[in-house]
Amino acid sequence: MGIRTAVAGASGYAGGELLRLLAGHPEFDLVAATAHSQAGQPVAAVHPQLTGLDLVLGATEPAALADADLVFLALPHGQSAALAAALPDTVAVVDLGADHRLRDADAWTRYYGGAHAGAWTYGLPELPGARSAIASARRVANTGCYAVATTLALAPLVAAGAVRPDDVVVVAASGTSGAGRAAKAHLLGSEVMGDLTPYKVGAHQHVPEIKQATGATGLSFTPVLAPMPRGILATVTAMPTGDADPRAVLAAAYADEPFVHLLPEGVWPHTAATAGSNSCHLQATVDVDSGRVIVVGAIDNLGKGAAGQAVQNANLMVGLPEATGLSAFGVAP
């Protein structure tokens, strides 16, 4: 028997992607999946792409999850902490929500509100020292989707002193699945198609997470809702501190990474190339007019931005090769 695995919040988009990845994982045995309003429904009735997965969604409560060795929490922000606290210490937990990402309680209150539940080990293996920390942890906070694309583009440049950390500008477009599965008027097909919409301008909740993960001290972040179901394209700009080649910095940082790919010079990332994968595609240049360093990163927000990243973290936590059950290659068309 493999590692007994459960998913709380399995009816959402990230939860469905987790179920898909876990169903094909060679070492994880999917033994339970829970939901709120969809409890009692067969998984295939909620996620038709998972027809053949013989599992019924249970109610989201500790008793439904406590017998698992490993639990993924794919719940709305603010709902993970209480459930995680009720699980036995012997259960490994990966939280896809924001509850345990931030070390700064004031930042949590400012951007999310309510009481701060405390910080867990931050789950982005590509950051320096992160792999060993994740491998020794029983509780890991998965990264935010925008934070993954931005952090992978920016963190090596800040760490190398190649760019100023106090003047970073990010504009990132995301597919509609990043807003969740709940019915909302502004996410209707007729509203989204043929339109680009900025939202939470100047006050997005991923700002403190990105600053914490990258070492940036001044960050302007503008998210944009794009008319596509999945994917994130983040354009990150910063002022250089010298004449370091940003491509060389990124190439050195990610030379041995299985899921981060610096594209050939002149080839720019696009979201479709990462769909269905756990990869991040990067490209960098220096603006000939302003002199600013520009890095563009593309991910699948449900892959490297959520479920794939969570499985990568879980693999490390249970002692498996981190790429187990994951693909670095996208699907097309």
UniProtKB/TrEMBL annotation:
Record bears the keyword Glycosyltransferase: no
Compartment list: Cytoplasm
Enzyme class: oxidoreductase
Cellular component, GO annotation: cytoplasm
Stretches that traverse the bilayer: none
GO terms for biological process, alphabetical: L-arginine biosynthetic process
Keywords: Amino-acid biosynthesis, Arginine biosynthesis, Cytoplasm, NADP, Oxidoreductase
Enzyme active site: 145
Main subcellular location: cytoplasm
Every Semialdehyde dehydrogenase NAD-binding domain range: 4-135
Highest taxon above the source species: Bacteria
Pathway(s) this gene product operates in, as recorded in its UniProt entry: Amino-acid biosynthesis; L-arginine biosynthesis; N(2)-acetyl-L-ornithine from L-glutamate: step 3/4
Enzyme Commission number(s) of this protein: 1.2.1.38
Record InterPro entries: AGPR (IPR050085), AGPR_dimerisation_dom (IPR058924), AGPR_type-1 (IPR000706), NAD(P)-bd_dom_sf (IPR036291), Semialdehyde_DH_NAD-bd (IPR000534)
Reaction equations catalysed: N-acetyl-L-glutamate 5-semialdehyde + phosphate + NADP(+) = N-acetyl-L-glutamyl 5-phosphate + NADPH + H(+)
Pfam families, sorted: Semialdhyde_dh (PF01118), Semialdhyde_dhC_1 (PF22698)
GO terms, molecular function: N-acetyl-gamma-glutamyl-phosphate reductase activity; NAD binding; NADP+ binding
PANTHER family per the UniProt record, alphabetical: N-ACETYL-GAMMA-GLUTAMYL-PHOSPHATE REDUCTASE, CHLOROPLASTIC-RELATED, N-ACETYL-GAMMA-GLUTAMYL-PHOSPHATE REDUCTASE, CHLOROPLASTIC-RELATED-RELATED
UniProt family annotation: Belongs to the NAGSA dehydrogenase family. Type 1 subfamily.
Primary role: Catalyzes the NADPH-dependent reduction of N-acetyl-5-glutamyl phosphate to yield N-acetyl-L-glutamate 5-semialdehyde.
Protein name per the record: N-acetyl-gamma-glutamyl-phosphate reductase
Organism: Micromonospora humi
